[in-house]
């Protein structure tokens, strides 16, 4: 029985959330998503949400690697991670604000420009860049593409090394024939730095693992009041969020991963 005057658990946990700032945990060098100079699209998303809350943004910077959540969100140093895959057990997820997919990046005027799936025979025998251990590597192995693949490291300190940037530079230099990357990283980098390349979402890879993911904001487990507040903000401002992401070059797809979403149509 709840004693008179006792405070419900939800209210107790929500008291951990700052009322004076929108406190964000972020990687300081995760280009193009979060950057300490504020140039990432997750920085702009944070500014948008903070404006709706009428609060300033305050960052806790920490490299996105082992211990990130433990040393930031769980330690109470901040209240939200702007981009987190739906269903991850370390955080309580908000409703998703975007769905995106891995992409195949190739020269826009080359022989692979209209390839849309990894089973395409035109990819056979070619050197394809892939982040080692990422979900598309399994599909590449099933399609016989791993033998000549060029692997790039998965876990790095992006203040000193950027596999995605290196892969796209190698592609533009002709050292590899194609690159397979997470769309919310590849799309903005291609739009900003590599106009001669083309990124195509891999929507036809039916086998496991899936190559599309719903992206949420992550909050501390148990923070249901804060989660519901963010859910409401996402729902009421989805059009602005879509426009921000599309402008950045993020490939947005339908919730079921079966088509490209046309923003503003």
3D architecture notes:
By secondary structure, the chain is α/β, with parallel strands linked by helices. The protein has two domains: 9-98 and 212-248, Periplasmic binding protein-like II (D-Maltodextrin-Binding Protein, domain 2); 99-201, Periplasmic binding protein-like II (D-Maltodextrin-Binding Protein, domain 2, 3-Layer(aba) Sandwich), CATH 3.40.190. It contains eight helices and twelve strands. The chain has helices at residues 9-14, 41-53, 68-71, 136-142, 163-172, 183-193, 224-236, 238-248; strands spanning 22-26, 29-30, 34-35, 57-61, 80-85, 92-93, 98-107, 128-131, 150-152, 178-182, 197-201, 212-219. Strands 1, 4, 5, 6, 7, 8, 9, 10, 11 and 12 form a ten-stranded mixed β-sheet that branches. A hairpin with a 3-residue loop joins strand 2 (29-30) and strand 3. Helix 2 (41-53) runs antiparallel to helix 8 (238-248). The longest helix is centred in the N-terminal third of the chain and has 13 residues, at 41-53. The termini are far apart. 38% of the residues are buried. The model is unreliable at 1-13 (pLDDT under 50). This is Amino acid ABC transporter substrate-binding protein, PAAT family. Residues 21-248 form the Solute-binding protein family 3/N-terminal domain.
Task: Summarize the topology.
Blueprint: H1 9-14, E1 22-26, E2 29-30, E3 34-35, H2 41-53, E4 57-61, H3 68-71, E5 80-85, E6 92-93, E7 98-107, E8 128-131, H4 136-142, E9 150-152, H5 163-172, E10 178-182, H6 183-193, E11 197-201, E12 212-219, H7 224-236, H8 238-248
Parallel strand pairs: 1-4, 1-5, 8-9, 8-10
Antiparallel strand pairs: 2-3, 5-12, 6-12, 7-10, 7-11, 7-12
Helix pairs in contact: 2-8
């Amino acid at each position: 029985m709840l004693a008179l005057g006792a405070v419900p658990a939800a209210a107790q946990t929500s008291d951990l959330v700052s009322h004076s700032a929108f406190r964000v945990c972020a990687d300081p060098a995760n280009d193009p998503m979060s950057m300490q100079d504020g140039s990432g699209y997750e920085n702009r998303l944070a500014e948008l949400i903070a404006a709706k809350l009428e609060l300033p943004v305050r960052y806790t910077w920490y490299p996105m690697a082992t211990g990130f959540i433990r040393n930031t969100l769980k330690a109470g140093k901040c209240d939200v991670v702007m981009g987190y895959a739906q269903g991850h057990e370390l955080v309580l997820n908000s409703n998703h604000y975007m769905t995106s997919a891995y992409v195949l990046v190739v020269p826009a005027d080359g022989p692979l420009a209209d390839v849309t799936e990894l089973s395409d025979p035109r990819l056979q025998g070619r050197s394809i860049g892939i982040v080692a251990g990422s979900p598309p590597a399994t599909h590449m192995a099933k399609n016989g593409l791993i033998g000549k693949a060029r692997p790039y490291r998965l876990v790095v300190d992006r203040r000193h090394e950027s596999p995605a940037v290196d892969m796209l530079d190698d592609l533009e230099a002709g050292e590899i024939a194609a690159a397979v990357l997470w769309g919310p990283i590849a799309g903005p980098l291609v739009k900003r730095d590599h106009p001669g390349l083309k990124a195509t979402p891999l929507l036809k890879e039916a086998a496991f693992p899936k190559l599309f993911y719903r992206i949420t904001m992550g909050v501390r487990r148990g923070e249901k009041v804060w989660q519901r507040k963010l859910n409401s903000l996402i729902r009421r401002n989805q059009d602005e969020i879509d426009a921000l992401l599309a402008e950045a070059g993020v490939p947005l797809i339908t919730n079921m991963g079966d088509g490209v979403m046309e923003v503003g149509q």
